[in-house]
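Page 47, continued from p. 46.
Same chain as before, 423 aa.
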Amino acid sequence: MGEVLPIVRCGGASGGDLGRARFAVLLLVLAASAVLAAFIVIANWPLSPSTNLLTVIRSWTGRDFACFWSVSALALQGEAAAAYDVARLHAVEVALVGAEIKTPAWVYPPPALLLVTPIALLPYAVALVLWLLAPLIGLALLLRRLAPHPLTPWLLPLFTGVSLCLGIGQNAVLLALLLGMGLLLLERRAVLAGCCLGLLACKPQLAVLVGPALLVAGHYRALAAMAATVLALAAASTLAFGIDIWPAFFRASAWMSAALASGELKYTLMATIFAAARMASLPVTVASVLQGAVTVIMLACVVQAWRRPLPFWLRGAVLAAAMPLATPYACGYDLALLALPLAWLAGEQLRTGGRSSRFEFGVLVLAWLTPAAGWILAEATGVLLTPIAPLLLLIVLWRRASGLLRDRDLPPIVTSELAAAPL
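Result:
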């Protein structure tokens, strides 16, 4: 997005500011993104009313959302713990779709179950549309503040991390919105920011770096609000569903860990070092050591960024790029989080009128396409390269950070005008 947004400033045959070659590349990237988005729309359009939710590729409308809706239905029927029973959940999903399907098991913690319970109060189609569009609109408006350009909201659905979420019915756009809102509110409304960040605990493997970032930066009120939100959600889910919900969750988590290690879960859609190592036929122990090392490196990156006098949204961009790499279980659609650093980089270019280096330009194009392209490449070759995109994006961000830290005129605390602006 960093180079895509300024495209309207390109003039003449040479492409103006971008140059002819870059302008051509951007057109190709947008065309490829549009083709992918169109395929996702077609693939998720019902074949006919008589086939219930089956689509033109004999999949089912909403894909993973069928799991969320079915879990909600079980909770509303007073069978919340059954959501963690693979066989029971699968039966509900098959009854919903009207055909034999394969959907993921429910392994989210009980607070997430509490949040998705209202979904089945609505018809499936209505719930699906709201599930996809409400977070998308919210994130588009937030990114419009980071990259103040009329095209920003319209380009967001073409970012392949987002279009994957829209096609698969996943929730990473909502996670990106919660993270972005937490960052936007952090310096002026710390308690509300902490509440937004606390909701990330519904997908805890992606939220492990948020607490350390707040701690080293001294955002203690936000950290306390985040912890209080997590505890409140845990207590509310226990009251709503009973204490037995927790043993069911821990059994499901153990099953998921075993399935991840054994390869029962498909690695091609994933975006982690662990999955890449396992696809390369490395032993589980080696893959775990590599993932552990990367997790420590990501923690160090975030700590260093948040304890130094860097622009606020640069620190936020580092956090968003590091989050998917810090866990063994994250998928290509979870790279919707990269919309935040991509938009920040785009906004910086719009504000300064600068031109990125060839390396940075290439990384931004790669980060834009990789969530989907990495999956397709892994399916075709058996090699998972998806984790390279957030890693290279972190390098770009740290190069910018290093340049700022070398500037002797950098004030002790540099905050974003966006963060300081009235909401």
